[in-house]
Amino acid sequence: MNKKKFGLRVAAVCFLFIAIWLLQRLLMPKYVSAIVEGSLIEEYYREETSHDVIFVGDCEVYENISPIALWDNYGITSFIRGGAQQLIWQSYYLLEETFKYEKPEVAVFNILAMQYDEPQSEAYNRLNLDGMRMSKEKIKSINASMMEDEHLAEYLFPLLRYHSRWNELSWEDFKYIFNKDKISHNGYYMRVDIQPVKTIPKPKKLPSYEFGEKAWEYLNRMVELCKENDVQLVLIKAPSIYPHWYDEWDAQIKEYSEEHDLLYINLLQKADEVGIDYNTDTYNGGLHLNISGAEKVAVYLGNILKETYGLKDHRDEPELSSVWQEKSRFYNEMREKQLRELEEYGYLKSLGVEKRED
Amino acid sequence: MKRLSILLIALLLLVACAGPKEGLEEVVGNDQQKAVEDNKSSKQGKTDGAVEDNDNNGEEDKGFEFEANGVVIAMNAEMAPIIEKLGDPMEYFEADSCAFEGKERMYYYSGFEIHTYEKEEIDHVQSVVFNDDSVSTKEGISLYSDFSSVIDAYGEEYTLTEGLYIYERGKSQIKFLVEDDEIVSIEYVAIVE
Fold first, then answer.
1. What one-character DSSP code corresponds to residue A225?
2. Distance from CA of residue A31 to its chain's centroid?
3. Domain with B151 in it: what CATH number?
4. What is the pLDDT of residues B80-137, one digit of tens each?
5. Residue B69: domain span
């Protein structure tokens, strides 16, 4: 084989791989103007400085706590590695992966996910797994999360899963093929609108109030992982009124946290102390807090974390201060933009939010 | 070189021709804004016609039905005609689905509540839950009945998990939670594919 022929073959192979890679990039959902929750996990990799606190858990972390308020009030640096219906094994592997990049002082886990003992839905799996960088933690998380009809190969090579999107491609898929706009504030999903709590759904009777074996197993592993990495684990229940948090569940977590010498904060029980007003601090009837509620939770939680674990105030450190000033600027800009939109249209049109009849 | 070109073309054809895999529409769909807008006009669904299982699979697939004030409520049926016949609920709650479009809605009537799910932007009955003993199943079972009355009415073809007796018929289930031989919870549930 002469040199020219060999060079052509190498170029052809490279071209083939680049074409496949580009096709995959193009066909994967971008999660920018809709289902933005799919972008949360990957935004962590843009971080250039480390964090004192890492949050993991479901929507009750990424919608209910403002890392910017933690910085503004206490100089605490934090990131929320939360995802929609994030299952406990997904939280565990995200923590394991995070500890490869940094060792925070504190890890906070929202324990609502203890209610699930089995994988729930491919759609939610995708929101939590697609954004993870390729790693052994990602593969372990995929294996723990897959539904019966899912395949590891479809996660490792998403083109196999998303190939059928070719006829749904929009300008957004081309625009964000390489870079996406940042949508979160260190993992926090901002909402400024208000929808007060009007009805609290009646809790359904359950056949069993015991958490499942798999959920306990991963909580045990999370405790061990944090110990090994010298990270303080804190359990919280966010102040969301639905899905219902049963007293029987609360009792199990209390007992567990006492046995394992963990701090457990039930913010739902402490909503008055936190200062949550369910008429003004929620954007969807008490399921999730709006920015006002998320800042109150951050102020309350930040004080406990600072007092209990002696977290350092970094506001006088020039490098960190400059990074977080930029984050605050983006946060305040988005807040203003959402408020203007709310004033103009009566709802958050750009987020694809439905206009409420009331 | 020729082989590589063929491989590349074959790959592109495979991608272009492949059909969608079921069940991930909400993840792969990118036309969410349109969905929200369409939702506004079609959420209430049909407002005329009978209140029945919209899958219309005939008598043998007809699932369990609950009847209240002469209104038959079948699982998976469209909700709008049911509301029209039952009247406005005493209370109403809606929960956003985390991340995805669509809401779970709960309608509270005297003695029972109806939960719905959205399919093609139309509300369908997901479940009916009894809240007191003022209502009963078509077979005459109400809350706090003896468990033996369930066996008499529904037979012994059930599955049992931690005190929860589940009967299945068509695309529906009826679930009885039993404590100390007493029924403490009754729920009709749609089987949604």
1. H
2. 14
3. 3.40.33.10
4. 999 999 999 999 998 877 777 678 899 999 999 999 988 888 999 999 999 999 999 9
5. 59-190
